[in-house]
Every structure is written in structure tokens, then in C-alpha cells.
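Reopening this one. Same input as before:
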Amino acid sequence: MDGIDLADPVFARDGDCWQPHPEASGPFRGLHGGAVSGLIVAEMERQAREEGLGFMLSASVVLLRPAPAAPLETRVDILRKGGRSSALEATLVADGRLIAKGTACCVAPHSVAGTSAEKRRPADAAALPAWPLKPRFAHRTLFDALDLRIDPEGTKWGRLLRPLMPYDAAFAAVFAVADNGQPFSLDAPRDVLKHYTFPNVDIAIHTARPPVGDWIGVKARSDWRPEGMGLTESELYDADGRFGRACQTVVLMPHA
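Same output, byte for byte:
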């Protein structure tokens, strides 16, 4: 990370486009899925805030093809603007090609008596040891922009060392961390990893409330099948306890 200004966002505005920094890169071809999904969700999050649509509680992103380390264009459309619930859609384009597409739902809060709430379980992720299996590559990737820790139960905790965007995007930061559910679930060596990579083709996150604090805990489990496909699902935690879940469809692909 020598010579890098950690105050700079992972994506910087350049005219009508977003320019990814090297830390937006992934271990495979193209940008990291967490960076791509984070960019799309951040733009929907910004639009929702400007329109006063309430809290973003769910979002889903389909990764159609590898995103290049090149100028990226985003477009956000409001599908519905309601009194309590609203929906948005966003696209990511590079050189005229559709790279990824996302949708999100927002809810305006309203006090309801007699409802139950998840028991608060405060966590201090900053006091945890570093995750010793944090991936390292010859080139810079999104992992270099993440501080990753591990708790005694094996839950991985992460926070961005530099902002994802040049504006607040807390829900998008959840995507940047949670997209790593696959490597988080692989503490034990697997023979399949010698021959296959494991990119996810989508990621969907559903939450019961907005995230609290910078740290996101990901308790991940992968279910990979002999047909070369699988699912990674993760419980999500923050400084106040469990608040949501992430799911990713995984495709096992031979090493190039």
C-alpha cells in the first residue's frame, strides 16, 4: 500500500464516468465483485437518499461479465416511489457493454408497537486478531483495501480502509465485505481449489435494519456441488449484532 492515499475512494469521479483504482481489482479477471456490486448499490443508495425514500434494506446485483479497469458509467432509475416502500434499478456499463445490473428496495420507518427485535449482541471487531488467511496477490486487489479480522467462532469481520465512494454509502460497504463470503468459508484446504476458481455470478443481501458502524461480520457457509455449481450464504453482523443475510450463486470454473 506504499504511496497510496487511503483517503482516496476506491472509485473516483471522472467526468460522466467512474474510474476504478487498482484496489477495485479482483483475484480473477476484471474488477472484484464486491467493488462492482458496491458501486451499483452505492449509486442507488445515493439516489434513495436524495429522493428521501427511507432506508435501503435489500439489494441484488447480477454480474453479467467481468468489469474492466476502465471508465464505468452508471444509471439509476426509480421503479416505484411509495409512501412506505420504494424500488430502484441501476445499470453499470463499460465501453457500451452492459456489465452488471442491480435492484434495491427502500422502506420508510414507522413506529409499530408490540414487535420483537433481535437481541443486541455488541461486538468489538477492532479488538480481534487479523485473519491469517487473508488472500494476497501479485497485483493490488480489493483485499488490500480491507481490514479483515476473525473472532473465536470463525466469523470474519471486515471494514474498508479507504472509502468505496466519494460520498457516504454504508449499505454498499456491506456488499464490498460480504461479497467475500466464498473465501471466508474456506478455512480448511480443499482439493478442488487446486483446479478451479469460484466466482459468484450474483449477490443478494436482505437486512432487517440499516448497518451500524464500519465493521461487518460475515459468518459464511459454502455448498458446492459435483455439477460445478453452488451457493454461498452468510449471516451478517455489525456492532449491534445480527442484522441480515447474503446469498451468492457460485460457478466453479477451471483455472485458465
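So the earlier flakiness isn't reproducible anymore. For the record, The longest strand covers residues 97-107.
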